[in-house]
């Protein structure tokens, strides 16, 4: 079957006082139907910007090039209202911070019922809908559906939680509520932005296991966003490693761990805390300035293998093994994607 999502040569720019920041610089990745993929990289690498462009939530950015093909349709060619119609229904999102994502002045139940009612209004954003408060359907049905969903996320007193305000719940409980809300519309595609990161490790693990089960049952396609390669290994079938707005390596999860290629991926692997010591080695240095990144390879300032060539010739992604791509001069193979990157006048 066709992939549910194909991102092709995506570029996202922001205008800043220092000039144009090329925050996403030619990103390609694919999510197959029913697959769980991960987008991994350190904070500031462009994960969230990628996600926001998928959701059509980047009003201040320009997208000079690229395609975001969802179920065969380029999202970048859709009107605002057509995007609204998909966002939150077909495509749903779990945010990383349950405290700021839930409305503190409404009970859990009120928020869930609002989402269910809004789903009957195909041409409106949730905000527009809430403004208009259009009502349809029966209150009792909505309540029943919301309570069912709360028990599906293994909340043991769903009726009580339905009546609760977010502040009355624990962090783990709030995260479960957010999962319940994201799944209310039975989305085909779910983006999970660092779910559980705000929680302690044990609770995070439980939340990830639960989410894993729920999406498996529903055959939902998922994109996990995480800075933690260890988490990506637990939850995903396929991993895309992102550095400074580019995908530097992508492979099925098992292959990536068995045979990591790119120096950045190897660095990330070393930074996963080991069981024995509980600590990992971080990668020296920091992300480049997006208004003036190193020419050619954006990782050159931090790479232990950097050669002059790395600043001269763009490291196009190469297919280093079947379905396994790496963008680094150390590795050769056929081009992974058809693409041209303009490095300015030579
Ligand atoms: Fe390092 Fe060069 Fe590979 Fe970039 S292209 S990751 S600088 S070896
Ligand atoms: Mg983020």
UniProtKB/TrEMBL annotation:
<comment type="subunit">
    <text>The complex is composed of two ATP-binding proteins (NikD and NikE), two transmembrane proteins (NikB and NikC) and a solute-binding protein (NikA).</text>
</comment>
<keyword id="KW-0472">Membrane</keyword>
<dbReference type="InterPro" id="IPR003439">
    <property type="entry name" value="ABC_transporter-like_ATP-bd"/>
</dbReference>
<dbReference type="InterPro" id="IPR050388">
    <property type="entry name" value="ABC_Ni/Peptide_Import"/>
</dbReference>
<keyword id="KW-1278">Translocase</keyword>
<keyword id="KW-0406">Ion transport</keyword>
<dbReference type="InterPro" id="IPR027417">
    <property type="entry name" value="P-loop_NTPase"/>
</dbReference>
<feature type="domain" description="ABC transporter">
    <location>
        <begin position="5"/>
        <end position="269"/>
    </location>
</feature>
<keyword id="KW-1003">Cell membrane</keyword>
<keyword id="KW-0547">Nucleotide-binding</keyword>
<keyword id="KW-0813">Transport</keyword>
<dbReference type="InterPro" id="IPR013563">
    <property type="entry name" value="Oligopep_ABC_C"/>
</dbReference>
<protein>
    <recommendedName>
        <fullName>Nickel import system ATP-binding protein NikD</fullName>
        <ecNumber>7.2.2.11</ecNumber>
    </recommendedName>
</protein>
<dbReference type="Pfam" id="PF00005">
    <property type="entry name" value="ABC_tran"/>
</dbReference>
<dbReference type="Pfam" id="PF08352">
    <property type="entry name" value="oligo_HPY"/>
</dbReference>
<keyword id="KW-0067">ATP-binding</keyword>
<dbReference type="InterPro" id="IPR017871">
    <property type="entry name" value="ABC_transporter-like_CS"/>
</dbReference>
<dbReference type="GO" id="GO:0005886">
    <property type="term" value="C:plasma membrane"/>
</dbReference>
<dbReference type="InterPro" id="IPR003593">
    <property type="entry name" value="AAA+_ATPase"/>
</dbReference>
<dbReference type="GO" id="GO:0005524">
    <property type="term" value="F:ATP binding"/>
</dbReference>
<dbReference type="GO" id="GO:0015413">
    <property type="term" value="F:ABC-type nickel transporter activity"/>
</dbReference>
